[in-house]
Amino acid sequence: MNGLGYDTRAGVAAGIDRALADPEIKAIVIAGAGRMFSAGADIREFNTPKAKAEPTLNSLISIIESSDKPVIAAIGGGCMGGGLELAMGCHFRIAANEASIALPEVKLGILPGAGGTQRLPRAVGLEAALNMIVSGTSVRASQLAGTALFDELVEGDPLPAALSLARKVAQENRTRKRLRDLTIDDPNAEAFLQFARNTVGAASKGYPAPLKCVEAVAAAVTQPFEEGKRIERELFAQLMRTPESRALRHAFFAERTAARIPGIADDAPARQIRRVAVIGAGTMGGGIAMNFVSAGLPVTILETKQGALDKGLATIRRNYESSVKRGKLDANAAQRNMALLSPTLDFEQLADSDLVIEAVFEDMEVKQDVFRRLDRVAKPGAILASNTSTLDLDRIAATTERAQDVIGMHFFSPANVMKLLEVVRGAKTADDVLITVMRLAKTIGKTAVVSGVCDGFIGNRMLEQYLRQAMFLIEEGASPAQIDRALERFGMAMGPFRMSDLAGNDVGWFIRKRRYVEKPDIIYSRIADRLCELGRFGQKTEIGWYRYQPGRRDALPDPAVDALIADYRNEKGLVPRRIGDDEIIERCIFALVNEGAQLLDEGIALRASDIDVVYLAGYGFPRYRGGPMFHADTVGLYNVVRAMHRFENSGHGDPGFWRPAPLLAKLSAENKSFNG
Ligand SMILES: NC(=O)c1ccc[n+]([C@@H]2O[C@H](COP(=O)([O-])OP(=O)(O)OC[C@H]3O[C@@H](n4cnc5c(N)ncnc54)[C@H](O)[C@@H]3O)[C@@H](O)[C@H]2O)c1
Question: How many Å apart are CA 95 and CA 93, to the nearest integer?
Answer without folding.
Answer: 6
